[in-house]
Amino acid sequence: MKIICIGRNYANHIKELANERPTEPVVFLKPDSAILPKKMPFFIPAFSNEIHYEVEILVKINRVGKHIAEKFAAKYYDEIGLGIDFTDRELQSKLKEKGLPWEKAKAFDGSAVIGHFYPKENFDLNNLSFQLIHNAKIVQDGNTKNMLWKIDELIAYVSQFFTLKKGDIIFTGTPAGVGKVMKDDFLIGKIEKEEAFQIKIK
Ligand code: MG
Hints:
Elements: E1 3-7, H1 11-16, E2 26-30, E3 51-53, E4 55-61, E5 77-85, E6 87-88, H2 89-97, H3 103-106, E7 112-119, E8 129-134, E9 137-143, H4 151-158, E10 169-171, E11 179-180, E12 186-191, E13 194-200
Parallel strand pairs: 1-10
Antiparallel strand pairs: 1-2, 3-6, 3-11, 4-5, 4-10, 5-7, 8-9, 8-12, 12-13
Bound molecules: magnesium ion.
Magnesium ion (MG) binds next to β1.
């Protein structure tokens, strides 16, 4: 399986990192080795001084497809989840400055937290709230209504470049409020009232 990630999909997050607003979705990949095994803590990698959390709505692809039209995109997923796109912000900034690929900062082992999935019918996907709670404080409070590109648009866009396969996961971008994790921190992710994951930082 592969993990397809969208960057800069919420205007308030683009602002906080002083990024340019893109005219097309920003896309990058994580390998399956990036998935943090269930119930494992996240270990801050030895190479890093600045790991940021980015909470994101996830979409699990349920069948093979390419060049998917937006109007048919909803047939390609039944489940929605929540996860974290852990990012080495310092390293990412260095790589961005030089125009180099981001993978070392975004796709390292453990960088993809994948929480519980829920049937998409449980939610209004165009008005779905989600939160990240960092040591008992709400630090990210997002809603899919603020996405620049909606889930179906993202599926149509990325499937022009990559054949989607059953089990692939799309990370749909993070809202504002990203921040640094430290050893012994505790993170909880919520979709509406549902607790989708808990992560200890080591
Ligand atoms: Mg992200």
